[in-house]
Amino acid sequence: MKRLRLFDLMRPALFGLDPETGHRLAITALKAMPLPGPRSSQERAGKLAITLAGLDFPNPVGVAAGFDKDAEVPDALLALGFGFAEVGSITPLAQAGNERPRLFRLVEDEAVINRMGFNNAGADAAIARLEARAGRPGIVGVNIGANKDSPNRIADYALMARRMTPLASYLAVNVSSPNTPGLRALQDEASLAALIDGVIEARDSTGITAPPPIFLKVAPDLEPADVDAIARIAMDRQLGALIVSNTTIARPSLRSRHAGETGGLSGAPLRALALKRLRDFRKATGGEMPLIGVGGIASAEHAWERIRAGASLVQTYSAMVYRGPQLGAEIARGIERLMKRDGFACLADAVGSE
């Protein structure tokens, strides 16, 4: 008999709350969770360990940006069994984001639509929290963005790179949210090249001997020429990885009454498109650029499919809404079983093996 988890018992009550209140409650609960004492990441490493961009991940399953916008609970997420946590998106100045309601559960579709608009408490608040956790183990990436009303968004990204470089395991440059007007235009080849050059220059200006690698998060809604241009820039600038992908503005067949809401769609309906885009980037980079698979990953089988298609790491978020915070550990255990089933002793050997 399948064991009934605490989340399964709590889900009806949580779903009785509006989604944003429910999410805030989840963050509050994680903040109250006792944390294990400091220990080295090597003590946790095992068959699922993998190295990417010079970082040693104890397992390949991470929490995508958007869950912990203000870097409030990265260590709690790591303690739950995730191999890494990505906080943000964080902007230079605090901003309220778009008007509520702006987050919708599409229960019948196991999906989410959001039009949050980079709501966060700003760089100063996040920096204070990240400084407070300094010295703790675990990989915590910082997803950086630009303020909605910024007159110079590239300057915002550069500023965030400079300020977060001393505190981040990696920097994730987010130009793929559909909820900040004009942001996705930064994926245009000329704009993207200027942006990445600015971020690299800002990061390197800190003088840190081993600065964090830069990851670029891209949209799933790209044409073949866009994929080729982004791949070329990422490889020319020797980025650490591409995160494929963010939410989609497309609307596949959906059953929920919220299907017509504007914003980015995530969860199960994004799975096929995100997988296709991952394969596109694998092909465009010739397998030479590390990839992180995101979008619709709700089980070990989904994660394994993404790994076999070329992802060294995977991230989940929307599936946690429906399956609970233990999902990361469950997926990691499942990947280990699938590795054994398919005859892989090393996770790295499975990457791109389809």
> What is the terminal-to-terminal distance?
33 Å
State the secondary-structure class: alpha/beta
Q: Characterize the overall form.
A: globular
Q: What number is the mean pLDDT?
A: 94
Helix content: 25-40%
Radius of gyration: 19 Å
Number of strands: 13
Percent of residues in β-strands: 15-25%
Can you write the helix and strand succession as a string? Answer: HHEEEHEEEHEHEHEHEEHEHEHHH
Largest beta-sheet characterization? 8 strands, parallel, barrel
What spatial order of strands do you see in the largest sheet?
A: 3-4-7-8-9-10-12-13
Q: Which blocks of ≥5 consecutive residues have pLDDT under 50?
A: none
Give me the number of helical elements: 12
What's this entry about, in short?
With 354 residues, this protein is of the alpha/beta class.
